[in-house]
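Z., the sequence and structure:
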Amino acid sequence: MSLVTSKEMFEKAYSGGYAIGAFNVNNMEIIQGITEAAVEERAPLILQVSKGARSYARHIYLMKLIEAAVIDAEESAGFDLPICVHLDHGDSFDLCKSCIDGGFTSVMIDMSSKPFEENIAVTKQVVEYAHDHGVVVEAELGTLAGVEDEVKVKAEDSSYTRPEDVQEFVERTGCDSLAIAIGTSHGAYKFKPGTKPQLRFDILEEVSRRLPGFPIVLHGSSSVPQEFVDIINSNGGNMPGAIGVPEDQLRKAASMSVCKINIDSDLRLAMTASIRKYFNEHPADFDPRQYLKPARAAIKDMVKHKLVDVLGCSGKA
């Protein structure tokens, strides 16, 4: 089994009315939990690495862990599980080039905070290099609010994607997929308490009309399950007002033109909730394996739920 691009994944997802899960990875336990879930559900998979994760774990460690996961998936599953390795929120041509040269099969260049013409110019530069090396490119129009790794955008600086811009942008850059802003947000604090979270499906529908058959991506799509928040807070944590995107809205988006849905915060919450609970219940334990094993299982269970109930991609590998 070898790593693949997301091209065929997205073609099948678009026609099948489901989305591929793009899960952020930082260490061995997270990679194991995600890939074990994907194997059991026979679900195509995108493992994505942020600039911050690359800085934390280093490129070679993450790639070797993913290589091991690919081999393990093949041996345990008995079938080829499509796995794509993707750079999340690349902020420069040099970073994208480094990831392409280092074995990634997909990269995102995020110039969404820059003027339209600058976004086009840098994205096109990345696309040309990536395509020459058999790698696909995700770009972004519109700016999501929130904080997650290297992404820090104030609410007042966020903006919805303008549907009237998307066709020109895609045609001039040659990008393979497009992340748009329709109300999702990075981090665990996506909406104010007491408000009703609502995605702008009117924007998604108009973008889809202008880009028929083109794969759309949603960032900042963690649902922030309240059971994780409650476990964290009842075991010494402090996360008041953490609210995510309702899963029924994500499922609706997946049934439309959204072919890739990014999930990061929910992984962190599942892992942190498990570890905090373990520490509280076993104060004498100090072996990392004792608390990382249930944390890995918590990630696996959460990812399986996403694959089956939210993304609809179970059994599509």
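The chain has a mean pLDDT of 93. The chain is about 50% helix and 15% strand.

Let me know what you think.
H.
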